[in-house]
Design brief:
Blueprint (H helix, E strand, L loop, with lengths): L1 H14 L19 E3 L4 E6 L2 E7 L17 E4 L5 E8 L5 H5 L9 E22 L9 E18 L5 E15 L12 E2 L5 E6 L2 E6 L11 E5 L5 E7 L19 E7 L9 E9 L2 E9 L1 E5 L2 E6 L2 E7 L1
Amino acid sequence: MKKIIGLFALMLTLNGCDDGDITIEDINFEDVTASYCDQNDILYKIKDNEALLIQIENSENFFTNEVSDEGDPTVITINNTTNRVIYRAYSGEVATGNICATIPLSTPSVIEEWVATSGTIEITTTANVVPNTTSTAGNATKITGYTYYIEFKNVTFLKPNGVEQLYETYVFGDRIINSSLPFAFNVANALKCDSSNEVYNFSGKESLVLNLDSSFFTGTLSPNIKPISATNKVTYKLFETALSASYFCTSPFPTTPVLSEEWNAVDGVSGVSGEIEVIATEVTPNIEYTIHLKKVTLKRGNAEFYLGDDYIYGTFIN
């Protein structure tokens, strides 16, 4: 009999709960993966009937391919007008449509909202470097995208009842954007400029240009190898639109197409790393040149990747 009365009392308690009476004491999305809405530029986490939202004005200026200096994240001031952080509790389980839809779903409804009134958003950017399993150069790596580690510092939320809640450090978590360089060059497409020792290879929106000293093209039928230096450069460029052959062999380079990224090879050490090898063979009545880039690392800011132990750049007849 006591068990029956106890169960009956529990049922009355549960039925007596009203969604509007829920009291939120803390914000916790520690194990939740962040998502992003293209429609309204909102970065968010959802968990059951809760959501944590970030909206940053011109966010593309902050989620870039520039790797952060150690201990020097990008800092954005929260102001509740252009750079907003909001926590919401809903009357039922929340879905992506409640956050991203042009016309948000009408249910569930928001029953509590905390608005961040001060503090900063800190973003630390790192490159995601993995083995390049498609490369034949040996031990090559590639960048598949960038990870943005997001923290709030000294963020104050204002609750509906007028009470403020401060988090000195609140970890929002990671946003990952996949962004890989094409590197789709064909060795047969390498060419040398007639008026200089510039060698170029391009494909679509990318180019790989070598500026070499004249000793590489004397016609001597033997391998010639030198380290990358101020006089022997390797430069990779990615543009916003496709290239044509008319872009090359001019000085200065044309202003169009617009440059998106530029990577430069790290200076080499003879017999150790970062070397350019040019092999000349006779193809009567001309000379055929085959270029190898050996143990070359390409670098942009704090990001870098390894081109491989022996990357075959291309072959051309001169």
